[in-house]
Amino acid sequence: MYEFSYHKVASVADAVAAMSAADDGKYVAGGQTMLPTMKHRLASPSDIIDLGGIAELSGITVAGDTLTIGAMTTHAAVAASAEVQAMIPSLAQLAGNIGDPAVRNRGTIGGSIANNDPAADYPAAVIALGATVHTNKREIAADDFFTGMFETALAEDEIITSIDFPKPLAAAYMKFENPASRYAIVGVCVAKTASEVRVGVTGATTCAHRGQRLEAVLNSDFSSAACDAVEIPLERMNSDIHASAEYRAHLVKVMAKRAVDACA
Amino acid sequence: MVENGIGASVRRKEDNRFLIGKGNYTDDINVAGQSYACFVRSPHAHATINSIDTTAASASLGVIAVFTGDELAADGIGPLICGVTVTSDDGEPHRAPLHPALAQGKVNYVGDHVAVVIAETYAQARDAAEKVDVDYGLLAAVTDTGSAADEGQPQIHEVAPNNMCFNWPFGDKDAVETAFAAAHKISRLELVNNRMVTNPMEPRAALGDYNEGTEEITLYLTTQNPHVHRLVLSAFNQLAPEHKLRIVGPDVGGGFGAKIFVYAEELVVGWACRKVKRPVKWTSDRTEAFLSDAHGRDHVATAEMALDENGKFLAMRVMTQANLGAYLSTFSTMVPSYLYAFLLAGQYTTPLIYSEVKAVFTNTAPVDACRGAGRPEATYLLERLVDVAAADMGLDPGEIRRRNFIPLDAFPYQTPVVQCYDSGDYETALDKALLLANYAGFSARAAEAKGRGKLRGIGLSSYVEACGIAPSAAVGQLGAGVGLWESAQVRFNPTGNVQVFTGTHSHGQGHETTFAQLVTEQLGVPFENIEVIHGDTAKTQFGMGTYGSRSLAVGGVAIAKACEKLIAKGKKIAAHALEAAEGDIEFGNGNFSVAGTDKAMNIAEVAFNAYVPHSYPEGLEPGFDENAFFDPLNFSFPAGTHVCEVEVDPETGVVEIVKYSAVDDFGKLVNPMIVEGQVHGGVVHGIGQALLEGCRYDSEGQLITASYMDYAMPRADNVPSFDVDYAPTNPPHNPLGVKGCGEAGAIAAPPAVINAIVNALGVKHIDMPATPENVWRAAQAAA
Amino acid sequence: MPTVTMNVNGNSVSAEVESRTLLVQFLRESLRLTGTHIGCDTSQCGACVVHVDGKSIKSCTMLAVMADGCDVATIEGLASEGKMHSMQQAFMDNHGLQCGFCTPGMVMSALDIVKRNGHKLDEATVRKELEGNICRCTGYHNIVKSIQAGAKAMGD
Looking at the domain covering B31-139+202-253+259-292, what would its CATH class be? Predict the structure, then answer.
């Protein structure tokens, strides 16, 4: 990796100050994507601003029907959290199946969604559960957050502070893993609330998105059989050595059906 | 049984250092004043080099030197060689293009070596490597195995028109054609043997240290065969005379073939440390390993079997195109030829076999031996074809094998493809495997699985392989440039403990334990008083290294022979001390005794007398230290039947291996615990090939599976635990009665897995790797 | 260059490093604790697993400066007074290693598995938990057995 200046900061304000002083700074959370990218010399930030030491960004709290997860909370902490398991067990399961145990001890929810890898797991859940992303500047609805491949609504110096998840009636996430990387070839999160069914899809296209065709049928008939009628459009599907567009489209449906069944 | 002797599952001597973090791998070694090398590699699959500007790199922080192929050539170093000649159908030797260690005007694959930067730290070397400015003239690339020799393809080497390295026919073509013409049925199959990246977990590394005073180069290498490295680097690459070159292969983190070969980086590091008069270290990262380690397999083939009305095999015809990559790696030509076609008889009495192997160059990394080397390719082809034939004939896969097995009373059995199998009992292994796998209960399990929406399949693989490489005369006739004997030295120290020096190399196989068991069995010296030493040309007398499952079958016998010499000498010494005739001395349990008396002395006392020969047989040399060489009379022929049972999720194409049973004939087992571990590892290597591992280049020659993010290695949750048993026979050619076991699993497993999947889906064939998408498509097509 | 200070296997250590120095490089090159290995560059293989503040992490995917002030445990710190840890002993007793290269990472991951899942481990759990540790030699069969046996021995 190229050399850079490293800043360990203790507060969000310090982080923002460090960023504004840097030529080409980058925030790093757990570093589980950032560091491999830098090792391959695919990124060359002048400054690395480590958010990992900011205590205020870590932790899980419950207020009424809202689960709040601090941005620097690790996947392992989410997976092991009694609060998450009680409120949204499928979110704990999702977190417990990201990467591997050692990666989960470093990787964070804030880092994952800020990076917005097209094959990451969390974005599907953030979308399906209708979460709200809080930053140091504002709050952003899930539907507005993920804007494109590795792109989000975040401004350059904006830092995710926490994510609010409203408790659903039921939710499930089904992931079809890439056999090599174990990232999602396709991941589908289905969440049912009193008012609607929401579906978040990851891995299938360049960016996690709502599965609106699936939502349409599931809102009228919440059954896996209902998904059979849905046509998943091929033209937006990713296609690579691990899965063609056609196979991915098929998997979206299969994972959606399995998620619906798991909600029952 | 002797305590800790042959047949005991002794805990391994080597484990302590590995478990407490005190292993000593090449990258763990540091020499005072060492510098670091980073190679500039071609980003293009096929290009001319118009110019290389090293000015900026040379000026970069910490840089000691930047070298290109010009400096290497000026010093007369290289080129790299291939040590086995295959004669092409035109009567000429295979086409051997120049293989410079640093490119000479042209690069031929992505990762090809263009220049090297030596700097104070690795990071500085890598920073500077990026500043080496290479002006490339891009050429069209050829990467596809099947079409590489077609008209109009880009030409890689002038000496190899149509990218052909050799076309090697073998067998009686006319007789085979006659048999086919008269056959009741002809079964036919086209198949691919997928390219693998060998992937030992320790990446390759080299550390060169030149001593100006003695003019000796010490080269620490991730090698499976230190003396072979020394020989090739000296005699063919002009690095240094053999006696001024010391190769140390310390602890090596797995090889599986990939660390047999002499690589460009090794030669360059050895040369550069003398050039810059500083120790130079290079350690591959995993990306470099994917790009530049020799890859394995990569065949496309058509196989046909002629059968009579009873399902007996009459003749077989195999047309193979094999990809050797951009250059010939050290033993590459041997793999798709002698190690492949000579195994096509398998366990069967097929009287006529004709094979044609076309080996081609492509703009991909060199291809050479990978665990099994040629034998997995032959076995996969044959065992798939046998299942196709069974289906064509309406026979059970077990039954068609049984009808064609070489019977027990036919050994030694001369196959039509050179090999003469010395022992085997194929039907017993099959019977045991079918029992172990509960083959009879399969249909009930399949019915139960169907109720859960799963397709269950079962597949057999009855393999034989040729290892214990190899009789020198035989390989010499075939065109090998070396003899394949092995050597040993067994040395008693005056205090009675024993050092065993072997020319084989252990990189996971547990030789330090197994060989000590041999010696404790034979000499009666306590196991803990025996130390096995390997991997350093300055310590061990000589050797050819470890590959082709040869270490015990060849190297172990050399140790046994050295022990025999010690016993013979010890009898003379004991006779003198015990005042008896030499002919009356018996040896057993570590004691020399006078027959019919209670007069005896321990071998340790004999050793002491040999080093302190105050009262000693007249004319006898002092010392208790013997050398022996062993050149085997034949290959060793492990064989067996493996049974794989799978469940396929037809909705996703995911294959789960629910049960895997292996019954092997490895002859006598010295350490059953270690042997079973070798079976497990080999089988998972084979499962990896069958289900997960596929090395892929795109049409421009970019390697698209260049990391573990895209190249799927088998992980713990991809595989089950295994049921392992044995059906041993006694190989008459081997003095210890042993056969090799390291490659068998990788040879047997791929067809067992694919046969099971094909059985589950009810299709004729599916290519490896049977990825979920491929299986899902096959299931869709079959439904 | 920044200075890092950490406690490694009970010893306080301090050194100047480049910011880009990975924790695994610091351990291997600055401290010469070469038991921790590097097997890949994509955080997949697990040969570099160590514990930082009691949690398993991939030391190839953490900067040395990030571990400033932390407690780090490596394979070298497990045995005490010449006696192997129960988990190390279980690997030896069950032939859970061949070439030994992945072994330190396997053992460090195994201890983390026991910590989170207890002393009675079923095969499926161990296999799933080993997702981040690749071995080319053993076929995993004996690693799984070793971890189950080691977990049990740690509870006895």
Answer: alpha beta
